[in-house]
Amino acid sequence: MNEKTHSHFKCKWVIFYFLIFCCAESESQTRTSGLHKLALSGGTELRKQKGWSQSELAKQIQVSREIVGRYERGDAVPSIDIAKRMADVFEVSLDYLVGTSEKLINKEMLKRIEEVDKMKPEEKKMVYAFLDAFITKTKLQTLL
Predict the structure, then answer these.
(1) What is the mean pLDDT of the chain?
(2) Quick check: helix, strand or coil at residue 44?
(3) pLDDT tens digit string along 100-118?
(4) Distance CA 81, CA 73 (A)
């Protein structure tokens, strides 16, 4: 790996961790492993957080209420297309929805990462320097 590629890779991770550190939702939105079923039973929790009925969710993802109930009970597994629709309406990643990620990374955070990734190398260096300084400051404040 050349120096430029290594620096670019490192910078992406610095931004990613900064955004998780600063923008991640409260611990109450970190789900336990018991909810991480491929059948998306965690969708029940997300649906209730939104205040939606099964019928409302079904309308959003274009399936029947009965199918939503089967997903939530674990009696059926949604297709990747339906799972993607669920992730979109819940505004979470597919990884979070199916349980391969413990952190809720919202779409705002992902957009920021993508925007920084589009910047020129010198602009990225400035962003990374700021992020490093801010992370260090925040960590020091927690120690005091």
Answers:
(1) 75
(2) helix
(3) 766 666 677 778 888 999 9
(4) 19
Structure tokens at 118: 């589009």
Quickly count: other Cβ atoms within 10 Å of residue 142's Cβ: 6
∠ Cα 83 77 94 (to 5°): 25
Q: How many C-beta neighbours within 10 Å does residue 139 have? A: 10
**What are the extents of the domains in the chain?**
21-105, 115-144
The CATH code of the domain at 21-105 is: 1.10.260.40
- Mind listing the pLDDT tens digit for each residue in 62-71? 999 999 998 8
Nearest to 97 by CA among 85, 114, 111: 85
Read off φ and ψ for residue 8, nearest 5 degrees.
-60, -45
Report helix angle 42-50 to 65-73, nearest 10.
130
Q: Which of 44, 47, 64 is nearest to 55 (CA)?
A: 64
Indicate the helix (H) or strand (E) that contains 9.
Answer: helix 3-23
Contact predicate 68/39, CB 8 Å: no
Q: Could you tell me which residues come within 8 angstroms of residue 119 by beta carbon, excluding any fewer than 6 positions away?
A: 127
CA distance 88 to 107: 9
